Amino acid sequence: MTHANMMNNYFNPNSVYTKEDFRHCFRIGRHVFERLLHDVHQVNPYFRQKLDRADRLGFSPHQKVTIALRMIAYASLADSIDDTYGMPESTCLDTLAEFRDTIVQLYKEEYLCEPNDQEDLDWLICKAEYRGFPSMIGSLDYMHWQ
Question: What is the three-class DSSP state of 57?
Answer without folding.
Answer: strand
